[in-house]
Specification:
Blueprint: E1 5-6, H1 25-40, E2 45-47, E3 57-60, H2 66-71, E4 81-91, E5 95-102, E6 105-115, E7 117-123, E8 129-135, H3 136-149, H4 160-165, H5 167-174, E9 184-186, E10 190-192
Parallel strand pairs: 1-9
Antiparallel strand pairs: 2-3, 3-4, 4-7, 5-6, 7-8, 9-10
Length: 198
């Protein structure tokens, strides 16, 4: 089922998530719904708070960028990747800059600096514990989604000056004024279908 994506301004995007203790049909359904929602919105990652849920879950699917990875000689793991209860245990000392956007903050893209790589301990969809290192674009997408389960948004990495420049546009998004081509949820408006956005 495709779920509404919660926009900037909804409280759940700023709350820390809860550890998923056990597998269940409900958790597996949530994972399926998150994947379907992410694909419908043409995203490459999504976290549970973005669909109004408080579980410590995020999903990454960079298969749309497979050609770019192949040209760089990088083999990507099977997609989508499901991360439950993820914990960063190491980060690269060197940062890189790249433009990022977010399904919860439509139509805003800004350069963000992040570590070039990281090592993560997490459970996959089968609740198997894993410890893996990721680099490059995959590391960036994972860090972006990992931020979500800690209540952090990519705009938090921008300078105060840059956030001031974006203030009006960010306020418009909080109020539900967006041209997103997917279903969203705004705090004071409720669910907004794509044909209703403006």
């Amino acid at each position: 089922m495709i779920l509404p994506i919660y926009l900037l301004g909804t409280e759940i995007l700023r709350e820390e998530t809860q550890v998923v203790e056990d597998d269940s049909p409900e958790i597996q359904q949530l994972i399926d719904d998150m994947i379907e929602t992410m694909h419908a919105a043409h995203g490459i990652g999504i976290a549970a708070p973005q669909v109004g849920r408080s579980e410590r879950i995020f999903i990454v699917d960079v298969s749309s960028m497979e050609e770019d990875f192949s040209e760089a000689g990088i083999e990507i793991p099977d997609q989508p990747m499901v991360f439950l209860n993820a914990e960063v245990i190491d980060e690269a000392d060197v940062d890189s800059e790249f433009e990022e956007g977010c399904l919860s903050i439509p139509d805003i893209h800004e350069i963000v600096s992040r570590p070039k790589g990281l090592t993560l301990r997490y459970h996959d969809r089968t609740f198997t514990e894993r410890e893996e290192s990721f680099g490059g674009m995959l590391a960036r997408v994972i860090q972006h989604e990992y931020d979500h389960v800690d209540g952090v948004l990519f705009i938090d990495h921008l300078s105060a000056f840059k956030r001031r420049l974006l203030k009006r546009r960010l306020q418009d998004i909080r109020e539900g004024h967006t041209e997103a081509d997917y279903t969203v949820f705004a705090k004071d408006v409720g669910v907004i279908e794509p044909e209703d956005t403006a």
